[in-house]
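Lecture 7 notes: from sequence to structure.
We start with the chain below.
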Amino acid sequence: MKVVNLKQAILQAWKERWSDYQWAINMKRFFPRGATWDILNLAEALLEQAMIGPSPNPLILSYLKYAISSQMVSYSTVLMAISKFDDFSRDLCVQSLLEIMDMFCDRLSCHGKAEECISLCRALLSALTWLLRCATFYAEKVKDPLEQAAAENQLKMCLERLEKVLSSTKNRALIHIAKLEETSSWSAVEQSLVKLGENLNNLGSSPLRSQADDCVSLIKSIPTMLSVHSEQLNKTGFPTVHAVVLLEGTMNLTGETQPLVEQLMMVKRMQRIPSPLFVLEIWKACFVGLIECPEGTEELKWTAFTFLKMPQVLVKLKKYPQGDKDFTEDVNCAFEFLLKLTPLLDKADQRCNCNCMSLLLQECSKQGLLSEAHMNNLIDKRAADKENSPSLKSAENANIQPNPGLILRAEPTVTNILKTMDADHSKSPEGLLGVLGHMLSGKSLDLLLAAAAATGKLKSFARKFVKPESPKVFISPPSAKSGPVRALLFDISFLMLCHVAQTYGSEVILSDSNPPGEVPFFETWMLTCMPEEGKILNPDHPCFRPDSTKVESLVALLNNSSEMKLVQMKWHEVCLSISAAILEILNAWENGVLTFESIQKITENIKGKVCSMAVCAVAWLVAHVRMLGLDEREKSLQMIRQLATPLYGENTLQFYNER
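Predicted structure tokens for the same chain:
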């Protein structure tokens, strides 16, 4: 019944002249979910109705094209429906079918189970047989002088589609699978080839003849596809390697190197890539990443990936069996090839404001990937190339320090900072504060983080700051002198961890091995209170509702003190209490107990000394605002704006601008 109804629905659409999208909407209304359009043979039903007359019905064909574009029907059912049409004398109908094939034959794919994939292979084999029969029909008609011109035109269209289908290695592979599945169908292809061959003599030595011969030889090569190992030395582009490297550099700087090494080796083996070309492709991808990446943090990440992480990856690749040649010879050969890509290297040098090749060669030599003689030879060749090319340094870039040099210098600094953090600073906490303050200047922090991420040290680097109460400096009794230092150490640690989480993801900071009941303050705060993409914060979460006595004393302190007292503060408790304090202050403001001037004084107290208080306050306010109606948000938004504006005054602690 459904098949009958389907034909009736198509005829009704044609009679009432529905547009293609109207037709699709109504079809979905007529036929509720359950049976798919492929089971109902929608493609075949549409073609059957469209091809009734001497020329195709354009309206019904537009329905089929819409069904293909919107994926109502699969490519395999469309190809099977086309291959059932056998009245080749109707030239206009054949032309329409060839145009429908153009819509998808260069990007064949299917979604679903293995059976659907096999169906696509079989359908493509049927379509190939149909195209051969079609070409044979018109090649035979060329003999008739009266129909020669029209027949040649039709044959040309058939051969173009044949060539388009067969030029794709993927399509030939799908046909090969269908041949293995159904040998009887392949014998139909062979018979069609014989018939076409018999009629090719009618074409003489025209371009159509050579085009047909090319198609025939491609079809005959399909059965031997698996046995022919094509020599790939002439092929120099390997987009899979390129994609793997670009994806890793963009999305996964902090990841372990071993999985990347294994992925690259798998691609190398599967595609039988010679080692020099394999290494060349890795460096090409790195340089493209350097050139294309956005400015700022992403640029530093790519620089660290190229100059620190990838040499480490090659060191691990060196341990895998690579063939007869020494791996250092392959690396040298890859760099020789890379030197020929002068425009790529020039563009990278221009972007980074330095000789990237020279720095990379020095780093590879340091890692034992190149001999000193090879390194010097390659550096000299690149220097000679640069002398011959126009100057790439612009006047405004002359004073900018190049990122690659800064990243390479930042890497040993990370190790030194890790050692510094482990030392006992209880007697002179100012020394530790000096180190942290220096890290905040300019883009030092981003350089250090990128270097740490690329060398696998970011997690241990971040963990040093996760327990800001644990360094021995905090054990000494609070005093008027140590109060500001403790406040600053806490604040810088907190702000740096927020920055790490926002730049590299919170998983870099989280520990797998916290003892039960001993989750550090920052981890608790980050998991429950820190806004992140895709995370919905609950402003009524218990973490925002600490001990009421602490909240009351904090509200009093913020409201009454001319400035925050730094000596007796436990900063992690303050940061956990600030959200509840802000709620109390907001309610007092809403009810007219506090004036706008009082609110200004309170926000200045919050942001004036320890910036992390303002961060915690705004994190809660953002969650709170989302729960309010549009007409209730004004005071909360005003408070966010005030807290987000830096304080311009002399009465602030050290490193205020950096913080």
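Points to note: The radius of gyration is 35 Å. The chain has four domains: 6-227, 239-387, 426-509, 542-644.
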